[in-house]
Amino acid sequence: MKLLVIGIGDCGCRLASEFAQLDHTARAKRRVVIVSRAYALNNDQACLNSLPKAKTETLQPILIRGLMAGDGKSTESGANFMRQESDRVFSAMRLGGFFEADAFMLIAGAGGALGSGGVPVLAQILKERYVDKPVYGLIILPFDYELDDPQRVHNTAICLKSVDKVTDAAILIDGGGFGTGQHVTTVEHMASVNRDIAHTFYDLLCAGEMMVGKNMGTNVLDAGDIKQCLSGWSAIGVGRADFSESLLPWKKSQDFKEKGSATLKAVEAMSQALLHLSVDCKLENAGRSLYLLSVPARYANVDMVKMLGNRLRELAPNAEMREGSFYGSDNYAQVTVVVSELIYLERIKQFYDRAARLITASTSPPATGQIRDTRP
Fold first, then answer.
1. Which residues neighbour 322 within 8 Å (Cβ) at sequence distance 6 or greater?
2. pLDDT value, residue 355
3. Among 199, 217, 249, which residue terminates a domain?
4. Maximum alpha-carbon separation in the chain
């Protein structure tokens, strides 16, 4: 699947840069293109200057000149600013990347101003201009240590409500559970987290583009399958299990014991993927699901694919499931799991409830005590 990526705000720009680097890796190692263009939109020149220099021309930084109204910290001010500047933004983008892409992915942190307000605005414009292409949101929820900031809580609640209305699917990345929930103070740590987030999509985007004989597995998972799976609130996870030792080169096939061991490694990889889903959710609440197995051809067997399918059906019995496999890994099994059309997410409810309490507290009249008589 080939994406056009638009990162908005500080968080979105850094992740757009990581997706551009991911595309460079896919071109070099797998000879496929997975990102037609990546744009980093920001009104802060310093942030754009700090982005890692991409090894390809896939990434294009765009400086949005101007100041946001008000204090410039709220989602509402970010949305108004993006509406005013949207024509200039799209005029700075290259149309070729739009036509080559299978879908659009808008990326932003939910707690900021420009990103959280800009994603719904750009998503609505894209849906009106390109009616045949889905628009997805990759929304990064605040870290746990940021939840004490009322402005971030307010921005997150408004962003989630708006994105849910205008995007075809919103993939949530929980800052409190992805990587670590500790205070991220170093640039290197933040870069590592962003790299991990982008790499979660690597196999999923590559699988449908690697449609050559030596890489094709039992089922090809292409852009159409991903489009059919992604809908509403979504989560993604990747798990990996290394094979303890390689098969001897002169052995043409595995024996029964080796096949069983390889199958267990694939199941272990799926368990890791489910354990590290990008947001905590109940699988029985999913309406759609997908899994993708990446494994060396010498380890692949029918039982492996069958057991993974049965495992996901057991855990998500109400979900319409799609499955695929390809031979894209070296000496390990890697499984990507996507659960979508999630009916209920506790994490979203927490943000809504916290925002509602903050509004109630700010509008409640101050407590009145005994009034002292000051008459002479």
1. 221, 225, 228, 229, 288, 289, 290
2. 86
3. 199
4. 106
Whether residue 376 has pLDDT greater than 70: no
Q: What is the DSSP-derived secondary structure letter of residue 367? A: P
Helix 256-275 × helix 302-315 angle, to 10°: 30
Q: Identify the three-state secondary structure at position 77.
A: helix
List phi, psi (to 5°) of 47: -65, -45
Q: Which tens digits make up the pLDDT trace of 110-143?
A: 998 999 999 999 999 999 999 999 999 999 999 8
At 18, give phi and psi (nearest 5°): -65, -35
CATH number, domain of 62, equals 3.40.50.1440
Q: Which positions ≥6 away from 346 have C-beta within 8 Å?
A: 280
Q: CA–CA separation, 77 vs 242, rounded Å?
A: 48
Question: What's the burial of 188, exposed, middle or buried (CB within 10 Å: 0-12/13-18/19+)?
Answer: exposed
Instruction: Identify whether 364 is part of a domain.
Output: no
Say how many domains are in the chain: 2
